[in-house]
Amino acid sequence: MTLGFITTDVMIPEPSDAAWPKWAGYAVAGGAAAAYLYSGDYIDKMTREINRIKERSLGPPGFVYELVATKNGPYPNLNNGGTINLKVGDVWKYGQTTKGFVRYSDKDLKAKGLEMIPLPPGGYQMEILIQEKYYIYGYYFLHGHRPPGNPIFR
Question: Contact at 8 Å (CB) between 94 and 147?
């Protein structure tokens, strides 16, 4: 309904068309309506993926982690092949591991300006795969894109 109203109003010229607050309001309302309409597709996709994971065996114990920026500046954006400016503490990637802190060497993390932070609650592999999905999709729903270090919803 919101998108239909905006489309109709755009097609019929009137004096208020010159007022920028009107168009700013339409941008916010239209963006929110589009996000609502299209987020359902991603919620369905996430649900299907989680249901498939639940069919697996539990697997070994592990935890979900986030790789966060340790310095301000450009970081690789694996979603588009470019770079993105992050601030200290910004999430670059969510992942899961059953190998603990040996997943990445301290030297590699430091060279890339990243820190690995475990996220609660952890569990068996099947459980942490589901937790990882929640973190990645949650980031997407909040920011409108995946974390720069997560090129897919894995």
Answer: yes
